[in-house]
Amino acid sequence: MRNRFRNHLLIVGMLTMVFVPAGAAHASCLELPAVPVAIADAQTVFVGTVTSAEYLDRVATFEVEEVWKGDVGASVVVNGGPSIKELEAGKAAGQDIVTSVDRSYVVGSRYLVASHGSEDGVLLDNQCSVTQVYSADLDEYRPDTAVIVAQPGDPTPNTAANVDWALIVAIGIVTIGLGVGAALILRNRHDSLNPGDGVRASNP
Q1: SS (HEC) of the chain
Q2: Cα–Cα nearest to 117, from 42, 34, 35
């Protein structure tokens, strides 16, 4: 009887270890480092908003706002789960492959993303990183070298400068034109009120 009970507990324990929920991430991670340390160790760090997500929200497309470290464009894909190849293979087989350190993302949320590497152009992430929803507390870690990423359709600084100069020149031309026009009007009015000016009166 004791042996049966012991075997039963062993089986339950093994099943519990196998089916670890994807949300119970930190169970397989060491203690997370401080944010500045993690940023220093990360390969790529940026601030951006999730525009879409798939594979149980673990593969997300970000619209990048600022790049704190690394080389990132206006849009980038981040994978917080198993490799894309594994996910595609699982999808083809009708299975969702999960691990205990998978990270999922919320569409519409703004994140600080700290990626430890990349694969085929996709940044890699998981629950063992300091990636998190952005808050004002993270402002103090923003480096002076942070680069603001222009999104498609945003005016470039040069374009904005050209528009400003064009406006200034246009205002100047209009002002000069109004001044010349006013001077001509006053001159014509003066001539009409004094038609004999400059003509010597003749003796009778």
Answers
A1: CHHHHHHHHHHHHHHHHHCCCCCCCHHHCCCCCCHHHHHHHCCEEEEEEEEEEECCCCEEEEEEEEEEECCCCCEEEEECCCCHHHHHHHHHCCCCCCCCCCCCCCCCCEEEEEECEEECCEEECCCCCCCEECCHHHHHHCCCCCEECCCCCCCCHHHHHHHHHHHHHHHHHHHHHHHHHHHHHHHHHHHHHCCCCCCCCCCC
A2: 42
Return the amino acid letter for 63.
E
Look at the block and give the residue holding tokens 């990360």.
42
Dump pLDDT digits (tens) for 19-49.
333 333 344 688 889 999 999 999 999 999 9
